[in-house]
Amino acid sequence: MQTSTHLGLRASVAWRYVLLFHVVLALFKLYVLVLEPIDLYVEEAQYWLWSKHLAWSYYSKPPLIAYLNFLTTQVFGDTVFAIRLNAVLVGLGLVVLVYRLTYELFKDELTAVLASFLVYAFPFYHFVSTLFLTDSPLALCWLFTLYYFWRAVQHNRLRDWCLVGLGAGLGFLAKYVMVLFFPIALIWLWVYRRERLGQKGFWLAVGITVVCMVPVLVWMAQHQFVAARHVTHLAGADAATPTVWKGLVRFVSYTGGQAALVSVFLLPTFYLGLKRLARRSLKPEVAFLWSFPAGVFLFFGGMSVWREAYPNWPVFAYATLPILLAYLATTLGRLRQTCRAVMLSVGVLMLVFIPVTRTTLVRWVDPTAEPLGEMMGWRELAETVEAERQQLGEVPHFVFSDSYQIASELAFYLPGHPQTYCINSGGRRMNQFDLWPGLEQFAYQGYRGIYISNVPLAPETEQAFGLTRHIKHVLLYTGNALRKEFYIYILEDFENMEPQTPQSF
After folding, report:
1. In contact, 149 and 111? CB cutoff 8 Å
2. How far is CA 343 from CA 115, 337, 339, in A?
3. Cα–Cα distance list, 476 to 363, 371, 453, 484 (Å)
4. Sheet holding 481-494, edge to edge
5. How many other C-beta atoms are found inside a 10 Å radius of the C-beta of residue 201?
6. Which residues sit opposite 476 in a β-bridge?
7. Packing angle of the helix pair 200-222, 158-174 (nearest 10 deg)
8. How far apart are CA 323 and CA 345, in angstroms?
9. pLDDT by residue (tens digit) across 16-27?
10. Cα–Cα distance for residue pair 91/89, rounded to 1 Å
11. What is the Cα–Cα distance from 263 to 203, expressed in whole angstroms?
């Protein structure tokens, strides 16, 4: 009989080979990003621009993503590669944590290795490991916190509880919704390990998290709590009470989006496996795996009744689902059925969700569909705008828009990465540009403005200049499909523009 030491050594050696596979896969993804980079998504461009204005927090999100972008762009320059490197590293970190948490839960090497491979079958994983949005670092912090939370519950070591607090604190610095961790953890502890609530470890973790939140809370207080007002607006606090039918339609739409991100091909395996488990006594480990994603799903599901909930909002909590699927496959003898479902899911992902080149992207996917439509055409627009900048030569000028998306993308793709500006010509909600210095710094100094918008020039914008010259109406096509439409104006002799108060947050 092999000793536990020999078994552990063999498991360690096996994991090294598995880890090597995951690293090679991550390097291949980086290679694809270098070989054929797809334009930055508008939110990626915005978060990159934040990294040029480091602060304790920002209008709509906490600061972690800006600091991560700052670190990678300092090393690799202001490139798509530098930004999406963060997402690829998050993906690798998630795979490692999935393995570690699985082994910590079940002490079974096969289940742990299988779980690390099953991650790739879930569309949500490719979302957080390809685009670098706030969901990416949040997903990593969430799983990191879960890993040490389980260890802390089992061993009650202060070191583990401190890491729970640190993980949750960093998660909050990625996205405010990290605060959902503690209510769900509290419920799980009440059901399965109530004695931990009477000990100091859990409350120490809460305290460390609160300390991490302090810089953001101070920033909020200094800026009229605009971030809190933005979050409550997104939650539908100022929305009219919907009809029962409209609320139901929204919830069904939300549920359908989550099914797509988890993969509809894997849902039957989950259903049949959990149905069989329900006939037995539910192990704390299994409840641990499904209670956190279920809690987050229900939270946003309830919100979706009041206002539209974006499909990406809950995805950060789904990283335990590959572990649950691996457990169902190895424990209930459903390995063959699971493999079939995984092959279907991965096949669809290869054809649709993770194309290798932009040519493949255009061939298989509607180029105007969200979010893909928002990731195409920005370099072409920047080339057109840069040609106009070159004609101005040494004449002082600035580039501005009425859209933070356009302003952010142009700041990234224009040569030299000039600071761009976003005006409020009426009707839009607040954004980060409203908290930065605006066009008032150029008033009555003879500046020209290059204005880019999706709609024709508004009269109040035109009145801020002495002379208006319409330049171009730019239409960007893919085949016969109109991708984007822009209006570009050269505006001369800037006088001044009174900033308008945003109508919403």
Report:
1. no
2. 15, 10, 6
3. 17, 16, 14, 5
4. 421-422, 397-401, 448-453, 481-494, 465-478
5. 21
6. 484
7. 20
8. 16
9. 888 888 999 899
10. 5
11. 37
Q: How far apart are CA 461 and CA 419, in angstroms?
A: 19
Q: Crossing angle of helices 321-331/335-348, nearest 10°?
A: 140
Residue 4 in tokens:
């536990």
Q: Is 7's pLDDT higher than 80?
A: no
Q: Report which of 258, 257, 255, 270 is spatially closest to residue 342, judged by C-alpha positions.
A: 270
Where is 423: in which H helix or E strand? Answer: none
Residue 159 sits at the vertex; the CA angle it makes with 153 and 160, to the nearest 5 degrees, is: 35
Residues 62 and 178: beta-carbon distance below 8 Å: no
Q: Retrieve residue 279's tokens.
A: 């006939």
Q: Provide the whole-model pTM.
A: 0.89
**Distance between CA atoms of 471 and 453, rounded to whole angstroms?**
12
| Helix 321-331 with 284-306: angle, nearest 10 deg | 140
**Helix ranges restricted to H, 175-314:** 181-192, 200-222, 226-234, 244-262, 267-277, 284-306
Identify the pLDDT of residue 251.
Answer: 82
| Cβ-contact 118, 72 below 8 angstroms | no
409, two tokens: 């993308």
Distance of CA 414 to the CA centre of its chain: 25
What's the half-sphere exposure (Cβ side, CA atoms, 13 Å) at 450? 28
**Is residue 66 a contact partner of residue 83, using CB atoms and an 8 Å limit?**
no
Q: Which of 141, 138, 102, 132 is nearest to 119 (CA)?
A: 102
The whole-angstrom separation of Cα 485 and Cα 487 is: 7
The answer to whether 63 and 173 are in contact (CB under 8 A) is: yes
Among candidate residues 356, 397, 419, 415, the one with its CA nearest the CA of residue 489: 397
Residue 142: HSE in the Cβ half-sphere, 13 Å Cα cutoff: 27
Stretch 164-192: mean pLDDT: 96
Specify whether the CB–CB gap between 130 and 349 falls below 8 A. no
Q: Give the confidence band of 83 by pLDDT, cuts at 50, 70, 90.
A: very high
